[in-house]
Design brief:
Length: about 425
């Protein structure tokens, strides 16, 4: 395409259930598969990867460093949860005000804020032990989380505006970017910590995030999506539906089960198996690898099985994985291969739930609101998914750190397994009753 890319997305406000005429649902956009739009997609994808890497890089080394500064497991979990809490709170706020603030402005500010905060976080080891250390970590995790919320909200809108006819594929691609970041994060964190000390992971990733904003700014300078603010009335009927609530809760629990290991696994592996941060990072990627495998096979599975069945199977798989760590390890001597295998199947089960939840909620939304246009339903569904995912990312480290204070690692894992299995049973009962 020659000339400027002039993208306009006009999402009409839905005030009632009256179907909108085609002219009232006008969506004007010009980009297709061309060099500029593909380059912009690549830069957004890279920004997602780097930001996701920041969120997962701390696991192999930060808990031990914080412990040396007199920080308890519960407070370590609180520090880890500050960033996803901000994503949970600020993602819908930025999404609602995106028309006023501007997509590109939010995207640029988000990458700079997330990268700068992470860079400065690398100097936390200069803080005195106790309250100062915790306050410093919380403050910068908060600002980094706000930056992540800005990037995730504006990035998804920008990609959607560029590839309107391939929305589902693009969202899957961005989800894969987050998975890649979570996969390589622990390994990169362990490697950089092993060879450069505590500061190096923060300095490298913080600088990388800031540098990503440069090509992103250059390739999007002529891309200017204009979005009409969506009415809040469009979401009330969907978010109050029992099916949507249960699926969103399942998504949050699946996400939380994966992030449960962030403050708990590293100290356990160091104490039980005397592993270095590098090898701990390799253990951490077990769930990410199976997560990526599940993301590849989820398409064929959806063509043969219902989304609700896959969610239940995913929850059961997660529960079994935690019970392999819990009761089995309490009876026998802990074995490293059992821990790795359990983490791997937890990642696979969590991926089934997370990947399928969007499709399930979207199906429910369409059945409840047949008069709503697809773009509005997609925006609502994406908001629910981001919020539930962030809630699980927030809940996992807090609950994990708190349980680790009360019980040991194996018993804490068993408690999480019971909760997830209970949710699987609840989903099964609800689905059977709904079919009848």
């Amino acid at each position: 395409m020659e000339g400027n890319v002039n993208t306009q997305i006009v999402l009409r406000s839905i005030e009632d259930g009256t179907p909108l005429a085609a002219s009232q649902r006008e969506i004007k956009w010009t980009p297709h598969w061309n060099a500029r739009s593909v380059t912009a997609l690549g830069c957004c994808w890279l920004a997602y990867v780097v930001v996701s890497t920041e969120s997962s890089v701390l696991g192999p080394f930060f808990p031990s460093e914080a412990g040396d500064h007199g920080v308890s497991s519960a407070l370590i979990g609180l520090i880890f949860s500050a960033s996803p809490f901000c994503v949970l709170v600020f993602t819908p706020l930025f999404g609602y005000n995106l028309a006023k603030l501007g997509v590109k402005r939010i995207l640029m500010c988000g990458t700079l804020l997330a990268g700068g905060s992470y860079f400065i976080l690398g100097f936390i080891d200069y803080m005195p032990p106790g309250a100062s250390f915790v306050s410093y970590g919380l403050l910068l995790q908060v600002t980094q989380g706000i930056g992540c919320a800005m990037v995730s909200t504006s990035g998804s809108v920008l990609v959607t505006s560029l590839f309107q006819n391939h929305y589902a594929a693009m969202m899957g691609l961005m989800e894969l970017a987050g998975c890649v970041g979570c996969t390589i994060g622990p390994v990169i964190g362990g490697l950089l910590y092993e060879f450069g000390g505590f500061k190096l992971p923060f300095l490298v990733l913080g600088a990388s995030t800031v540098l990503v904003s440069i090509p992103l700014l250059l390739v999007t300078q002529d891309i200017d999506p204009e979005i009409e603010q969506l009415s809040p009335k469009a979401i009330f009927k969907i978010i109050g539906n029992c099916s949507v609530i249960l699926v969103a809760l399942s998504n949050a629990l699946a996400t939380g089960s994966i992030y449960f290991f962030t403050p708990t696994l590293s100290p356990f592996l160091m104490k039980q198996f005397n592993l270095s941060p590098l090898y701990i990072g390799l253990v951490f990627i077990a769930d990410s690898i199976t997560y990526m495998i599940a993301s590849v096979i989820i398409g064929p599975l959806l063509s043969h099985f219902s989304t609700r069945l896959l969610i239940i199977v995913g929850l059961l798989t997660c529960g079994v994985g935690f019970f392999c760590i819990g009761p089995i390890e309490l009876i026998a001597t802990p074995q490293l291969w059992i821990i790795i295998f359990s983490i791997a199947i937890i990642g696979f089960g969590g991926a089934l739930v997370i990947m399928v939840s969007y499709a399930d909620i979207m199906t429910t939304a369409k059945s409840l609101n047949t008069s709503y246009n697809t773009e509005s339903l997609s925006a609502i569904t994406s908001g629910i998914m981001f919020s539930s995912f962030s809630f699980g990312e927030l809940l996992g480290p807090i609950v994990g750190g708190a349980l680790n204070e009360i019980f040991d690692f194996q018993t804490s894992s068993m408690v999480i397994g019971v909760v997830i299995l209970a949710q699987a049973v609840l989903m099964a009962i609800f689905s059977v009753c709904k079919c009848q």
